[in-house]
Amino acid sequence: MGSSPHINLMAKISSQSGKKLDKVSRDPRTGKAIQERNSYAVSVWRRVKMKLDGRDPDLNKRFSVAEQVEFVLKEARNLDNLSVLYEGWTPWV
């Protein structure tokens, strides 16, 4: 009796996925797997880190917490920023 088409399909999928796992880029010196980085994600991460370090408006100056709060409040009240506010934003949800 022949094997089920479902079992054959599962075997084919697992063998194909095994091939993909074997094609990992490795560092030629250490042999460790090299992780590809999403450039946009890295830029967002850097921007968040700058904000947490107090360097958001000016990279060359470190702002105090009070100065950061004042900057954020000023930006939030800026009419130019409010005019481009997303109309579907629902802060109460």
Automatic annotation (TrEMBL):
Region annotation (Disordered) ranges: 1-32
Gene Ontology cellular component terms for the protein in this record: nucleus
Composition bias type Basic and acidic residues, residue spans: 19-30
A Pfam family of this chain: FATC
GO biological process: nuclear-transcribed mRNA catabolic process, nonsense-mediated decay
Molecular functions per Gene Ontology: protein serine/threonine kinase activity
FATC domain ranges (all copies): 61-93
Name this polypeptide is given: FATC domain-containing protein
Source organism per UniProt: Magallana gigas (Pacific oyster)
